[in-house]
Amino acid sequence: ERSYQKFAQAVASFRDFTMGWFRCTWASMNLCLSILSTTLLGTLPAGVALYQAGILDPAQVTLCLMLALGIVSPLMSATAFINSMKSMQFAVKDTRELLNLPQLTQTEQNARLEGSDIQMRDVSFSYGGTEGKEVLRHLDLTIPQGKFTALVGPSGGGKSTIARLTARFWDVTGGSITLGGQDIRKIPLK
Predict the structure, then answer these.
(1) 88, 126: one domain
(2) What is the mean pLDDT of residues 18-35?
(3) 91 and 54 in a common domain
(4) Same domain, 142 and 82
(5) Same domain as 124, residue 71
(6) Burial of residue 168, with CB atoms counted within 10 A of its CB: 0-12 exposed, 13-18 middle, 19 or more buried
(7) What are the respective helix, strand and coil percentages of the chain, to the nearest 5?
(8) Distance between CA 65 and CA 43 in Å, rounded?
(9) Is residue 150 part of a domain?
(10) Which residue(s) pair with 141 in the sheet?
(11) Which intervals hold domain ABC transmembrane type-1 (predicted)?
(12) Is the overall model pTM greater than 0.85, yes or no?
């Protein structure tokens, strides 16, 4: 049931993103498609009327029709460019959010490791920092040196989060993770 909730949330999030994107580009797409479909409807009668009035000859009417059709491709390119700009805006927004994440604290002192056991003591973690919803709460786990350890559980159970915390992609919001008896926050990232 929990993995279904996560899946449903992911689908809803994708729907909201897609609908937001469509709302941003819908007006320009409709305008462009309206202009394109009426290009011949306006040009052909006007060309025929000007020909009947003796203002244009058949070659000039044909040229006007060809030019009217020729404008379709650049307008479609402009529409695609507008859509690309919206995609870039979303990418820039996501990049800004990534760049605004707090930096991990780093030490320059080398740490002396006693073995390579990994221990998680009372580990809590939330993706939004201390304000976010906790995805791990008060976890205790020991991964002994030289042994195989499998993390097994349902989708959304925290297996990948545990692996990423161990690799220090993020810092825990509570508790500690030690490697060889040293808190990983005291081990240089380099």
Answers:
(1) no
(2) 76
(3) yes
(4) no
(5) no
(6) middle
(7) 55, 15, 30
(8) 6
(9) yes
(10) 120
(11) 1-87
(12) no
| Strand boundaries in the chain, DSSP class E | 118-126, 134-143, 174-179, 182-183
Angle at 173 between CA 114 and CA 95, to 5 degrees: 105
Tell me, yes or no, whether 108 lies in a domain: no
- Residue 113 within any structural domain of the chain: no
**CA 102 to mean position of chain CA atoms:** 19
Instruction: Count how many domains the chain has.
Output: 2
Give the pLDDT confidence of 86-132 residue by residue, as tens digits.
888 888 988 888 788 777 777 777 778 888 899 999 999 988 766 66
Instruction: Report DSSP state, residue 108.
Output: -
The verdict on 89 and 15 lying in the same domain is yes
CB-based burial label for 136 (10 Å; 0-12, 13-18, 19+):
buried
Domain enclosing residue 93, as ranges: 2-99
